[in-house]
Specification:
single chain; about 210 residues; alpha/beta; Rossmann fold
């Protein structure tokens, strides 16, 4: 783990505090209310979703970054829940097919190394009839802003510890074998313009999974 990775983990909650209060917290609460049964959250980070899980049978949180894992485990002590933390990337989930009723991804698919592969993994571990709940910042529909996202994405990934600002995440989810059943567009307030386009949605597995 790089020095910047440790610094980024330590400062993440402070960096995101304005956007959390202005936009993200309300979306997290509304989205996580749909989580029931056996739930997997990828990229659990510092545990920002933990206060909103109620009535789940079991909660598994994956997180690939060791400094984030430590912070996530500390956060779990503040919000006791039937939860397990597993250190694993979204592209290579150590679970059997059809393991979970719900998968949650909040501000994660912007950062994974291989977004299409990660989306296919989410499809694989979901039970038939399961749901993917997602909250992600994405590539802008406005062409002018999208061009600026492309120009500045290299800088964004360095500052944001791998966070990409120009990913077509909704299209990636559908290409992985999902049907989007709910989708809301919003703006990530208190954030730089290149990361403001935001989507909140629910998706279900659609027919056969995409080929890996």
């Amino acid at each position: 783990m790089s020095v910047w990775g440790r610094i980024f983990a330590a400062g993440y909650d402070h960096i995101m505090s304005g956007s959390e209060k202005a936009t993200l917290r309300a979306h997290r609460e509304a989205l996580i209310a749909h989580a029931r049964g056996w739930v997997l959250e990828i990229g659990g980070g510092t545990g920002a979703n933990l206060p909103f899980y109620e009535g789940v049978e079991a909660l598994t949180l994956t997180e690939p970054e060791r400094p984030m894992v430590r912070r996530l485990q500390r956060r779990l002590r503040e919000h006791p829940a039937p939860a397990t933390v597993v250190r694993a990337p979204a592209e290579d989930l150590p679970f059997e097919d059809d393991s979970f009723d719900v998968v949650v991804s909040t501000l994660v698919l912007c950062t994974v190394d291989d977004q299409p592969r990660a989306a296919r993994e989410l499809r694989r571990v979901l039970k038939p009839g399961g749901r993917l709940l997602f909250l992600e910042h994405v590539r802008a529909e406005d062409e002018r802003l999208a061009r600026w996202q492309d120009r500045l994405n290299g800088l964004q990934t360095r500052i944001g510890h791998g966070c990409n600002c120009n990913r077509p995440t909704v299209q990636t989810i559908t290409a992985a074998g999902f049907e989007i059943t709910q989708l809301e567009n919003d703006v990530l307030r208190k954030a730089p313009p290149i990361v403001r386009p935001l989507v909140v949605g629910v998706a279900r597995p659609n027919g056969q999974p995409a080929q890996t």
